[in-house]
């Protein structure tokens, strides 16, 4: 009588998922996450859902919830190649929380999600520690998260990150295109580097040039990979502080002097600025009002990348733009500099009627039927 051959038992671990490693990662990140908690948070780390007490919203006349979700894109490939994982979290927070701050919304909470081919507890803890430290900087509790192991779909060293945030703003204090008017001034807030957009272009240029990430680049003053991993500057706390200082809570909502913010992410400066201008108005931007960072010029020269392509892909040194009334400009510049963020006048807002373009006009981006940006002049390089 024949018997069937004995086959080894298939377990979750043999399928590539290590739940013990996942638990170890949670233990390693708990302290970092706990440090972001505020008095409004209900419960601790490890629940099925994070909760925050929003009783204070009863004091709002008409509270609006603002939400945003984003990732970091292919910048994670640089982090993986450099085996440096504690900076990418700040990029994630910047991409998500700053997007809700542009409306004037105060962030209430953030959550994150990490997908990976194999859970390495120390690596996951590094990523989450970066997220948590950035959340603490922008006064936002990291209220929940998920780490998912995807063996067979992702390589053992691969991972990707995503996040979401929710905030609140009083309806009659919401910032945006409807507040912008002729004569307003565009104030640039400097970027810390390339931030988290355009890395498919950057990585292609570096690959084409045959440069190693550990190559020391004199004009950058450090290794190439270190420059490319420079974390995204966080603007939300500064933006909200500017609003509070210039237009305090008792100010007439109809006369707010901070009109709008534009977060310069995918699409570049002109495309994102056009999103916060109303139809019929033109933002006039002078390319010569600032010096393009060395890393941007390096990408241009290494890859023979046309300026127009750079302009529609990278931030070129401008991470956020404040659109403000003329009488608020000096205060914006002063407060920004005090916060350690270089700022300068980038241009102004004009009527589009009879406007004669002096450069490249950008409008209708991201599906927004709004104003236009006329970006002109020549860039200055170091």
UniProtKB/TrEMBL annotation:
<keyword id="KW-0436">Ligase</keyword>
<dbReference type="GO" id="GO:0005829">
    <property type="term" value="C:cytosol"/>
</dbReference>
<feature type="domain" description="PurM-like N-terminal">
    <location>
        <begin position="65"/>
        <end position="169"/>
    </location>
</feature>
<comment type="pathway">
    <text>Purine metabolism; IMP biosynthesis via de novo pathway; 5-amino-1-(5-phospho-D-ribosyl)imidazole from N(2)-formyl-N(1)-(5-phospho-D-ribosyl)glycinamide: step 2/2.</text>
</comment>
<dbReference type="Pfam" id="PF00586">
    <property type="entry name" value="AIRS"/>
</dbReference>
<keyword id="KW-0963">Cytoplasm</keyword>
<protein>
    <recommendedName>
        <fullName>Phosphoribosylformylglycinamidine cyclo-ligase</fullName>
        <ecNumber>6.3.3.1</ecNumber>
    </recommendedName>
</protein>
<dbReference type="GO" id="GO:0004637">
    <property type="term" value="F:phosphoribosylamine-glycine ligase activity"/>
</dbReference>
<dbReference type="GO" id="GO:0006189">
    <property type="term" value="P:'de novo' IMP biosynthetic process"/>
</dbReference>
<keyword id="KW-0658">Purine biosynthesis</keyword>
<dbReference type="InterPro" id="IPR036676">
    <property type="entry name" value="PurM-like_C_sf"/>
</dbReference>
<dbReference type="InterPro" id="IPR004733">
    <property type="entry name" value="PurM_cligase"/>
</dbReference>
<comment type="similarity">
    <text>Belongs to the AIR synthase family.</text>
</comment>
<keyword id="KW-0547">Nucleotide-binding</keyword>
<dbReference type="GO" id="GO:0005524">
    <property type="term" value="F:ATP binding"/>
</dbReference>
<dbReference type="Pfam" id="PF02769">
    <property type="entry name" value="AIRS_C"/>
</dbReference>
<dbReference type="GO" id="GO:0046084">
    <property type="term" value="P:adenine biosynthetic process"/>
</dbReference>
<keyword id="KW-0067">ATP-binding</keyword>
<dbReference type="GO" id="GO:0004641">
    <property type="term" value="F:phosphoribosylformylglycinamidine cyclo-ligase activity"/>
</dbReference>
<dbReference type="InterPro" id="IPR016188">
    <property type="entry name" value="PurM-like_N"/>
</dbReference>
<dbReference type="InterPro" id="IPR036921">
    <property type="entry name" value="PurM-like_N_sf"/>
</dbReference>
<dbReference type="InterPro" id="IPR010918">
    <property type="entry name" value="PurM-like_C_dom"/>
</dbReference>
<feature type="domain" description="PurM-like C-terminal">
    <location>
        <begin position="182"/>
        <end position="354"/>
    </location>
</feature>
